[in-house]
Amino acid sequence: MIHRLRRAAADVFSRPALYWTVAVLFGLNRVLFTLVAPRRYDAEGMWEGAHAYLTNPSHMYDAAADYLARVHIIAPPGGLDAFVSPPPVALLAVPVALLPRSIGAQVWTAIDAAALVLALVLLYRVLASRDRVARPIFWLVAAYFPPLFADVSAGQRGGVLLVLAMASVWFERSRPAIAGAVGGLAAAIKYYPAAMILGPRPAHRIRYALVLFGVLVLVTAATFIPLGGGGTLFYYQHVLLPSLASHNPDCAYDSVRTLFMRTIGGEPFAVPSSTGYEIVTSPLHFSGVALALSYLSAVLFAAGAAWAAWRSGWNAAYGMSLGFALGALIPNEVWPYQWLPLLPVGLILLVRAVERRRTVTLVLLGLCLLGFWRQPCELFFPNLWTVAGIGIFVLALWENRLFRSKPMGGDSNATQR
Questions:
Q1: Taking the CA of residue 276 as centre, how many other CA atoms within 13 Å lie in the half-sphere pointing to its CB?
Q2: Residue 11 confidence (pLDDT)
Q3: Which stretches of the chain score pLDDT less than 50?
Q4: What are phi and psi of 63, to 5 degrees?
Q5: For a FRET experiment, which of 140, 175, 259, 399 has its CA 20 to 30 Å from that of 222?
Q6: Structure confidence at residue 410 (pLDDT)
Q7: How far apart are CA 215 and CA 224, in angstroms?
Q8: How much is the pLDDT for 417?
Q9: Long-range contacts of residues 99-105, Cβ cutoff 8 Å, at least 24 apart
Q10: What CA–CA distance (Å, rounded) separates 6 from 183?
């Protein structure tokens, strides 16, 4: 009887139709809840930044600098006082700033969502899996991944960053200079995609890195021109540096730094209670040790990504995705949508583990993904998302051997075959 049940279960769970159905249901759920969201605060903030860039660029950061000076944290999204991103982000949103604010926010959300879908299609094509089960599971996990939904729902720009990163991976196989240029555009919008230089094949790496940093510098410098010398210096002194030092007790703020500072550093943070939210503090107050551990972890994550990329035989898709994932693990400020950079390497690991029938790897990856099921502000400890994210990244590093024999995105001849 038990043997029959096992065979029946194996038969059901080996059917691609099951996973396609669940993937479609998750996708429809995400679309529905995105459409009914009453406001897109981050998209409205991007509209404000782009509008100020068009109308008064030399003073576009005055409101943000004033708020940071008074409160010492980044303002809630939605207004110009929360716009701390560099001018390339404002330039990116200029087309929607020509529309009314409410319409522009919705249009930007649609653009970001379309970019996310295109990014996933590019990664799906790079992986080129022929496994009947791996293909639908790729889309199921992509549709489930809560940071992706958080990005679209808020009207963020993660989709644009992701499509540029995946386009960089796509072009690395045959056009490393174009790949570097696309990576440079991504790094101009948000600096962390520059870490993708860890992944390209040795024959392409120097060209890729030179073009990436060249485009990054050129685009950044060009977009700062309307601010003038004084406006540029003002941004770096009164906006960028203070925003990097922002220590927000908000429960949605769940970076690796806050994981250490909240557990052993004594930094206060918000948790849900019967009356809303209350501020709690750990009984441990080793702030120096916690800060040192946060810096040490950043170094270890970066070193681990380089080591795993090397151990994989410089598998480009794997190595570049590891570099891109560092954007979720190293910054001081990480909101739910900022865990999106983990998605490519998580999907790459997932597909290869399914192809190789790595049961233990799949179980561990599934547990890490379940760590994102509830939003941070619904958890007794918001940094459970941090633990889950670290788990996915470390598991991807450990399983580098899965990518040695068939380099995804790293061997153009193999891809053509």
A1: 3
A2: 55
A3: 407, 409-417
A4: -65, -40
A5: 175
A6: 45
A7: 14
A8: 33
A9: 101/44, 101/47, 101/48, 101/51, 104/43, 104/47, 105/39, 105/40, 105/43, 105/44, 105/46, 105/47, 105/155
A10: 47
